[in-house]
């Protein structure tokens, strides 16, 4: 009888030992696999980041080629690669800090749900051409990215200068999202300007072509004011006078008046105000 009891106890201890060993292996196995996956993901992200930085470096270095033959291929390739990177899951949480070395900066909307990657094109001269790439999440939380310059629908805008935006405000609209962009630019070395656009996001699409500014009897898709810089004028001071400003508290936008003369356009010292209500600036 003792022999049988001892045998049964031995069996219990044996199976308990096997079970504990199997449990230890089960618990440790996912940890190893998870670490390997994380390592692979980090390597992929690092490789993508390095590739993007190389394309940015090529774009910056391509200015001389552009002067010789007018080719903008290097910038086109970088823009395409950047847009693809910005659409990938998790890209909105990345800071893309490595691009700052190539003077590529990021501007966030005040609600932190949309951001803009921007830089002065290496192909700019006295007329500024700024590249603006918009990244946002749509209503389904899908990441979207698009070149702002590709959103112009009016053929008259082709070849026009594009601005530096310095503020992006979220406006209260539903069901679509609406953002107000304000900024400045340079038509030539002697003609600075200010501009304001609205960007409307509806579903997977976005547009800057909805006329949301009621000026006089007409509706406009943007506010724009340019003035000739006189020899005795300070450029920064003139830009400050031309600035379009938005007050999010009272939802008013203030913009300058410019007049035409035989010597060109000039700021006449007056400003107008529109208020955002019922989905439009009036």
Describe this structure in words.
This is Lipoprotein. Residues 1-20 form the signal peptide. It comes from Pedobacter zeae. The chain has 282 residues and is of the alpha+beta class. It has one domain (46-281). Helix content is 32%, strand content 35%. The protein has 4 helices and 15 strands. It has helices at 2-61, 63-69, 73-86, 235-242, and strands at residues 105-108, 114-120, 130-137, 143-147, 164-171, 177-188, 191-202, 205-207, 213-215, 218-220, 222-226, 245-247, 252-261, 264-277, 280-281. The strands form 4 sheets. Strands 5, 6, 7, 8 and 11 form a 5-stranded antiparallel β-sheet that branches. A 4-stranded antiparallel β-sheet has the order 1-2-3-4, covered by helices on one side. Strands 12-13-14-15 form a 4-stranded antiparallel β-sheet, with helices on one face. Strand 12 (245-247) and strand 13 (252-261) form a beta hairpin. Helix 1 runs antiparallel to helix 3. It is globular, with a radius of gyration of 29 Å. The N and C termini lie far apart (100 Å). Mean pLDDT is 84; it is low at 1-33.
